[in-house]
UniProtKB/TrEMBL annotation:
The chain crosses the membrane at residues 64-83, 103-123, 135-153, 159-180, 201-224, 230-250, 286-307, 319-338, 350-372. The lineage of its organism: Eukaryota, Viridiplantae, Streptophyta, Embryophyta, Tracheophyta. This is Folate-biopterin transporter 6. Belongs to the major facilitator superfamily. Folate-biopterin transporter (TC 2.A.71) family. GO terms for cellular component: membrane. It is a multi-pass membrane protein. It comes from the Eukaryota. Coiled coil: none annotated. Keywords: Membrane, Transmembrane, Transmembrane helix, Transport. Residues 1-21 are annotated as: Disordered. InterPro entries: BT1, MFS_trans_sf. It is found in: Membrane.
Length: 517
């Protein structure tokens, strides 16, 4: 070895043992061995979801994965989207009801969802023959399949009977949702490492089901009619009945666990009462309710106008379903925008600008109804898709931080129960929005054939959306990563409630999943 080489080796500093300790075994191997691995082939990328599903089936039980697919994919995703389009045509073409009345009826669909905490308590406190989940899947299936068949078979149901059947279908979805969420909560506690994977599975199933439901709804309405299409909604509940017999569940002892659950229920009610009194909690809760209630829904008036051959653009059934399908994909874009760009902004700033954008984008509806798009040379088909995409993206960006804020308002120990309460408040806000929109449509004489004042109703809706900006002071200035609940409240959570996180985490898992739909 020459002198020059000896000097160069002497100048090389000795390895730092502290740095070596920071390197994992795999990183050391990667430094020593050159990476000769080939890039992933297209086939391996296609196989990854199947390997992932196989892993979930192996770790969580195949019947559980099947349950998630049936409840989130078929019951909520497909049935929910299919139901929305087909029921609109049913009220319009079969029952021939005015749009203002349909708005009021539609608000009643939210009642089973408002009652979700009750369904959850029933599954926890009142097992049937030692099973807390299986019987309620069967109940949900029967409650959904029978009304769907009744509507399909009877040529002319009364409005009261038809409304009862449709509410029964909605109740079926809500009960199945609560029951599978209980299973998800248990698995998330027992195998916490797979909790994100379970949420991803739920989100994918719901999104895929919604796309299929929206895409096929117009086709079936065109060929089977609205009444016959509603009969197809008996299939997902029937599969829920099958799920109730095959899903894996351990049998409980019964009486002792029921007493413990009743004790925890009393502690949860006490904890919720103490929590809701805090200004840090009731103020943002009030804002979320008012922001939903003041944004009155005009969906039915617009739907009737969309399909009217004289006053409106006369969209076909297939195209109406396609509009909603594209909107569902736009909602996913809204989730990605929030996740990648907006999740670091403070609550108040983000909600202020999201609400401002929400109110501004609502003017697209006014432009469309006044047919100014045609004066600008923009075809109806292109403009309605543009309007739907913008509306869905903005709505999702506005909704996501409110859900995150809701999770921050939940005290430790009763987080699931209190989150369910907040979701009930939001459901009441949506119900108020539907009923308020129906009243305004009726006051302005928007009917099945007269849409002269529809633009005025839309303009009032947008003014109310702008007015909601004056309530932004109810939202905390905190960042989305901050802790909002006082620490003393967290430490004073009742022991009877915090002793078993399994029972109290049900709704938190459920509603977080709804963000992905």
């Amino acid at each position: 070895m020459g002198t020059t080489e000896t000097q160069e080796l002497a100048e090389i500093p000795p390895p730092d043992p502290s740095k070596e300790q920071l390197l994992s075994h795999d990183e050391k191997i990667e430094q020593l061995v050159p990476d000769t691995r080939p890039s992933k082939s297209l086939l391996s990328i296609i196989q990854q979801p199947f390997h992932w599903l196989r892993m979930l089936c192996r770790e969580l039980n195949t019947s559980f994965v099947l349950g998630v697919v049936l409840v989130y994919g078929l019951s909520q995703g497909f049935s929910g989207s299919f139901f929305r389009v087909v029921s609109d045509y049913y009220w319009k073409d079969v029952q021939k009801v005015q749009p203002s009345a349909v708005q009021l009826y539609y608000g009643l669909y939210y009642i089973p969802w408002v009652m979700k905490p009750i369904w959850g308590l029933l599954t926890d406190v009142f097992p049937v023959r030692g099973y807390r989940r299986r019987p309620y899947f069967i109940l949900a299936g029967a409650l959904g399949a029978v009304p769907a068949l009744v509507i399909a078979v009877h040529a002319k149901l009364s409005i009261v009977m038809a409304l009862g059947c449709l509410i029964g279908i909605a109740a079926s979805v809500a009960i199945a949702d609560v029951t599978i969420d209980a299973c998800i909560a248990r698995n998330s506690i027992e195998i916490p490492a797979l909790a994100p994977d379970m949420q991803s599975l739920c989100g994918f199933c719901m999104s895929a089901g919604a796309l299929v439901g929206y895409s096929t709804s117009g086709f079936f309405v065109h060929h089977l009619g609205a009444q016959g299409s509603l009969g197809l909604l008996a299939l997902p509940p029937a599969l829920l009945v099958v799920l109730g017999f095959v899903i894996y569940e351990l049998k409980t002892s019964g009486h002792s666990e029921k007493k413990m659950a009743l004790d925890k229920l009393g502690g949860a009610i006490s904890g919720m009462y103490r929590t809701i009194k805090y200004p840090q909690v009731w103020k943002p809760s009030l804002y979320m309710y008012l922001s939903l209630a003041l944004s009155i829904s005009t969906h039915e008036g617009q739907f009737y106008w969309y399909t009217d051959p004289n006053a409106g653009p006369a969209f076909s059934q297939e195209f109406v379903g396609m509009i909603y399908a594209i909107g569902a994909m736009a909602s996913i874009v809204g989730v990605l925008v929030y996740h990648k760009v907006l999740k670091e902004y403070p609550f108040r700033n983000l909600l202020f600008f999201a609400q401002l954008l929400y109110a501004t984008s609502g003017m697209l509806d006014v432009i469309f109804v006044l047919r100014w798009n045609l004066k600008l040379g923009i075809p109806d088909y292109f403009f309605v898709i543009l309007e739907e995409c913008v509306s869905r993206i903005v709505s999702r960006i506005r909704w996501m931080p409110m859900i995150v804020l809701s999770t921050k308002l939940c005290p430790l120990g009763i987080e699931g129960t209190f989150f369910a309460l907040l979701m009930c408040i939001d459901s009441l806000g949506s119900l108020s929005s539907k009923w308020g929109g129906g009243i305004i449509l009726h006051m302005f004489h928007v009917t099945r054939t007269d849409f002269t004042n529809l633009w005025s109703v839309l303009f009032i809706r947008n003014i109310l959306r702008f007015a909601t900006l004056s309530l932004i002071f109810l939202v905390p200035r905190a960042d989305q990563s901050d802790v909002l609940i006082p620490s003393d409240l967290l430490t004073k959570a009742p022991d009877a409630v915090s002793s078993d996180a399994e029972e109290e985490g049900l709704q938190l898992v459920s509603m977080n999943e709804k963000l992905e739909a």
